[in-house]
């Protein structure tokens, strides 16, 4: 099934991105990373995140873990959003702690390193594969029908019952 046809509820997105539900909720309410499949519409509704949303959540988490300010992370996410998140899996995001740089080629990475300052990078392709691996072990939801897609855990009785009820 194509990744555009699958959405992930908040707890699944949190588990795959390595964040708390409180962080996820705050980031959605403040517009940092909003669910692109289905936003919440009041109490009791479930947000549904796309695969790319979960990748961005994990990138945000990595930047926070390295000390980049939330303000700089917001600027980066906004820049990525404006670009339509295209070629995300091929890019490297570099930061000196104050500014985040998007590098699409090894030459751009090399040019940043020539500056002599401390720089760290996030190879988004690696994050992409980490999220793919994590989500393959968790439950997704078909966007069109709402059917729960059961991961490799055949003992998940609750998910099987939900699917039978639909």
TrEMBL record:
The keyword DNA-binding applies. SMART domains: HTH_MERR. Keywords: DNA-binding. Gene3D superfamilies: 1.10.1660.10. Residues 16-79 form the HTH merR-type domain. GO terms for molecular function: DNA binding; DNA-binding transcription factor activity. Transmembrane segments: none annotated. PANTHER family: HTH MERR-TYPE DOMAIN-CONTAINING PROTEIN, REDOX-CYCLING DRUG-SENSING TRANSCRIPTIONAL ACTIVATOR SOXR. This is MerR HTH family regulatory protein.
């Amino acid at each position: 099934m194509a990744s555009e046809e699958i959405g992930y509820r908040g707890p699944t997105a949190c588990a795959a991105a390595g964040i708390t539900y409180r962080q996820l909720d705050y980031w959605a309410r403040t517009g940092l990373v909003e669910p692109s499949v289905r936003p919440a519409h009041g109490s009791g509704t479930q947000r549904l995140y796309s695969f790319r949303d979960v990748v961005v959540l994990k990138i945000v988490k990595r930047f926070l873990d390295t000390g980049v300010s939330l303000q700089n992370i917001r600027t980066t996410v906004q820049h990525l959003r404006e670009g339509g998140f295209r070629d995300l899996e091929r890019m490297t995001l570099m930061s000196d702690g104050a500014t985040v740089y998007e590098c699409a080629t090894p030459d751009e990475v090399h040019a940043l390193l020539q500056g002599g300052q401390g720089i760290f990078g996030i190879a988004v392709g690696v994050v992409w594969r980490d999220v793919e691996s994590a989500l393959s072990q968790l439950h997704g939801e078909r966007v069109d029908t709402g059917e729960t897609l059961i991961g490799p855990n055949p003992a998940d009785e609750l998910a099987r019952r939900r699917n039978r009820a639909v």
